[in-house]
């Protein structure tokens, strides 16, 4: 591999990407203020390029850094690494230091690096994470073909009566039979963002990203719904092996374009008529590996460029009887979205719940003003919502749509610890 790809200097440093870092406590989920992050090229870790600190919301400013040209990530024939790699060294008083080598930056999008710090305990050492290559650039085993619909007539095969979006899934970081591989409890939404950021390029069109995200989510929910691995005697939901499932990478960064799509779609999955389970939507890259009857990632990118919608892309590969469905239940949230946008003039129990949750969040994130929880959506509530949206990178509308409602729920659950894993 070319060293220029890790250290984008000279002719390769023609574009810019952005990096934004969020630091929270692994124990409390509270933001860590004044954490110091040193940024260097992965190829030259001793040469610090930038130093940034987190604000009281645990966030850094966006840092602009060099990347290879945009066209590298848009061309399936390109053989040069299309992203640059940076090493981050994170330290904060009272917490163990963390080093992440290989944070990937693509041009014209924002890389989001979320870091959770552990409190210092005696004889602890720095945590070091090395992020492997993106699947469209590195060498990974292709998916072993399976039936897209699992048999439902075997005793114990199906344990759920309906499709549920889980709060957490258990990811086995290796192949199924690798007993030495570690299991990770991962929030479902974070898992999807991680896999999509590991398997497609965030520079692609919105609908190409949507099609790929829907395929990833439906595949994952099939594993959840059928209890595929647990019925084989394993204690996890899914693996990080591309031969069996998807590529999931501990501590890797995600991207703003992918994060937005997952937030928009994460209650959805793919269906066929008269089939209750989510479809096991398998795919391959379509450049180095071909997979007739499955979606190809580069093929989806090409169709997105031609103006195809996400469902048109999916039907092109999987057939015209593929549909987008919505799960009736999302686990781990105090209350589901009311089904309409809350805004100035709205009132009732849903407004009250949202106000109460915002006030709990404001205890951890002091940039967000506390408000009177009275069930009436007035200017003060709109301003608190707008500040919440600013802190967490959402469009600053001052109204509570689907994305904002579930982001409020997610942060509330984290800082209130009502969903603490045993």
Structure, explained:
By secondary structure, this protein is an alpha/beta fold. It has three domains: 128 residues, Immunoglobulin-like, CATH 2.60.40; 167 residues, no CATH class; 68 residues, no CATH class. A hairpin with a 6-residue loop joins strand 5 and strand 6.
Produce the secondary structure layout.
Layout: H1 3-6, E1 15-25, E2 36-41, E3 48-53, E4 63-67, E5 84-91, E6 98-105, E7 110-117, E8 127-130, E9 164-165, E10 168-172, E11 183-187, H2 188-199, H3 206-226, E12 238-239, E13 254-255, H4 256-265, E14 268-271, E15 283-284, E16 295-296, H5 297-305, H6 310-318, E17 323-326, E18 329-330, H7 349-364, H8 379-391, H9 402-416
Parallel strand pairs: 1-7, 6-8, 9-18, 10-12, 15-16
Antiparallel strand pairs: 1-4, 2-3, 2-5, 5-6, 7-13, 10-11, 14-17
Helix pairs in contact: 2-3, 2-4, 3-4, 3-5, 3-6, 7-9
Integer-rounded radius of gyration: 22 Å
Give the strand tally: 18
Oligomer: single chain
Q: What spatial form do the alpha-carbon principal axes imply?
A: globular
Please summarize what this structure is.
Helices cover 26% and strands 20% of the residues. It is α/β, with parallel strands linked by helices. It has three domains: 3-130, Carboxypeptidase-like, regulatory domain (Immunoglobulin-like); 164-330, no CATH class; 349-416, no CATH class.
């Amino acid at each position: 591999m070319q060293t220029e790809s890790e250290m984008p200097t000279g002719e390769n440093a023609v574009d810019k990407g952005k990096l934004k870092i969020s630091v929270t406590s692994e124990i409390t989920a509270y933001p860590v203020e004044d954490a110091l992050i040193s940024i260097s090229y992965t190829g030259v870790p001793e040469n610090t390029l930038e130093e940034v600190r987190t604000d009281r919301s645990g966030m850094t400013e966006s840092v602009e850094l060099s990347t290879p040209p945009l066209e590298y990530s848009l061309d399936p024939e390109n053989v040069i690494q299309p992203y640059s790699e940076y090493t981050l060294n994170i330290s904060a008083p009272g917490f163990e230091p963390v080093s992440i080598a290989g944070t990937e930056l693509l041009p014209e999008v924002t890389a989001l690096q979320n870091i959770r710090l552990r409190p210092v305990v005696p004889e602890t050492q720095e945590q070091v994470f090395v992020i492997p290559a993106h699947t469209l650039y590195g060498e990974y085993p292709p998916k072993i073909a399976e039936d897209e619909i699992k048999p439902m007539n075997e005793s114990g095969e199906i344990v759920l009566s309906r499709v549920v979006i889980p709060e957490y899934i258990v990811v086995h970081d290796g192949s199924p039979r690798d007993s030495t591989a570690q299991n990770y409890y991962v929030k479902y939404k974070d898992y999807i963002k991680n896999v999509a950021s590991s398997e497609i390029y965030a520079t692609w069109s919105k609908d190409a990203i949507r099609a790929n995200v829907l395929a990833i989510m439906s595949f994952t929910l099939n594993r959840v719904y059928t209890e595929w691995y647990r019925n084989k005697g394993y204690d996890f939901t899914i693996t990080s092996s591309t031969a069996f499932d998807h590529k999931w990478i501990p501590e890797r960064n995600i991207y703003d374009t992918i994060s937005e799509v997952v937030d928009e779609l994460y209650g959805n999955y793919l269906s066929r008529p008269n089939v209750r389970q989510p479809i096991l939507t398998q795919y391959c890259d379509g450049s180095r590996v071909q997979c007739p009857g499955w979606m190809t990632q580069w093929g989806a990118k090409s169709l997105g460029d031609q103006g195809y919608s996400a469902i048109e892309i999916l039907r092109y590969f999987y057939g015209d009887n593929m549909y987008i469905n919505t799960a009736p239940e999302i686990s781990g949230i105090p209350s589901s979205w009311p089904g309409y946008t809350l805004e100035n003039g709205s009132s009732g129990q849903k407004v009250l719940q949202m106000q109460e949750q915002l006030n709990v969040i404001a205890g951890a994130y002091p940039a967000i003003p506390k408000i009177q929880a009275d069930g009436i959506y007035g200017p003060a509530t709109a301003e608190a919502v707008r500040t919440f949206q600013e802190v967490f990178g959402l469009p600053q509308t001052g109204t509570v749509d689907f994305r904002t409602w579930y982001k409020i729920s997610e942060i509330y659950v984290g800082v209130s610890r009502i969903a603490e894993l045993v």
